[in-house]
Design goal:
Blueprint lengths: L3 E7 L24 E2 L20 H13 L5 H6 E7 L1 H6 L11 H21 L4 E5 L23 H24 L4 E5 L1 H10 L8 E5 L1 E2 L15 E2 L6 E3 L7 H13 L5 E2 L3 H6 L6
Helix pairs in contact: 4-5
């Protein structure tokens, strides 16, 4: 639910099965089957969590461009790759930090985020990206970590936060629709993660969940007040029956269900086509 990912992988590899060997904080040799420039805690906006030492997505993109410029990545491989983008949860969650005083209202803040995403798409297209996947944010206002925010409800999701999420997601989908028009030869898809996760919350038993509110690992209200691994945390006996693993992140079971929906799902899950179709498309050379 809270993530900042910019990933490019060769389309021949199954979605999320490629070993993503290059990540900020764990740098290795350049792999043949995937590059992941995600930096935990980062967001769409450069200012998001900058005091935490995160790598902003703008710098993540510069890292990728450097590899392309230095011919460490073949240009043909870039054009054949799937590019996954999922970021923004940290930006919206941090908007509600008690020690932050936002300088923008929620509408302007979301628009600033979308502007940055537009710049991102511009740059990866220039670098050769042609198969672009923008994934919506999940219901960030439902994460257990909301328990640490003053005024946030714990008996239901945080409506103000989810409204910002939905506005951002709508903007992402509009951007996806514009990509084939603005960028010749490119194809883009929109992964509707928000609606998919909300379906899990509405029908938990159907999808194998016993708890869709609290974290499996943590402590305090919703197990969201103490981070998993920190002093005092507790661990549930059946992690895959929980929607949330810790105070921010989904469980492995949740990730598997979402991945399946994105790879081969219907248009209610990902549109205009799913990732399997996108991976097997023959695109024109432009």
């Amino acid at each position: 639910m809270i993530a900042a990912q910019f990933i490019g992988i060769p389309f021949q590899k199954p979605f999320l099965e490629a070993q993503l060997e290059l990540a900020n904080g764990s740098r290795k040799e350049y792999p043949s089957n995937g590059l992941n420039f995600g930096s935990a805690g980062s967001g769409v906006l450069r200012e998001t969590n900058k005091d935490w030492g995160v790598t902003p997505i703008q710098d993540q993109l510069q890292q990728f461009q450097s590899l392309v410029d230095q011919n460490h990545i073949n240009s043909t491989l870039v054009q054949q790759s799937l590019f996954f983008f999922e970021s923004g949860s940290n930006d919206i969650f941090s908007y509600f930090y008690p020690f932050n005083t936002p300088t923008l209202n929620p509408v302007a803040y979301v628009q600033a985020m979308l502007t940055e995403v537009g710049h991102f798409v511009d740059r990866i297209y220039t670098l050769g990206a042609r198969r672009i996947s923008l994934f919506s944010l999940g219901p960030v206002g439902c994460v257990p970590a909301r328990a640490v925010l003053p005024g946030a409800p714990t008996d239901r999701c945080f409506g103000k936060m989810n409204r910002m999420v939905k506005d951002y997601n709508k903007g992402l989908e509009r951007l996806v629709m514009s990509i084939p028009i603005k960028y010749p030869g490119a194809v883009a898809v929109y992964g509707s993660v928000y609606n998919t996760v909300q379906l899990f919350r509405a029908l938990p038993k159907r999808y194998g969940f016993l708890d869709v509110s609290s974290a499996c690992c943590g402590y305090g209200t919703l197990n969201g007040e103490v981070q998993c691994g920190q002093q005092g945390y507790k661990l549930c006996p059946n992690p895959n029956r929980f929607l949330f693993w810790d105070y921010f992140h989904p469980s492995e079971h949740t990730y598997k269900l979402v991945s399946k929906a994105l790879w081969g799902g219907r248009k209610s899950r990902i549109r205009p086509v799913n990732l399997r179709t996108l991976a097997n498309m023959t695109l024109p050379h432009v």
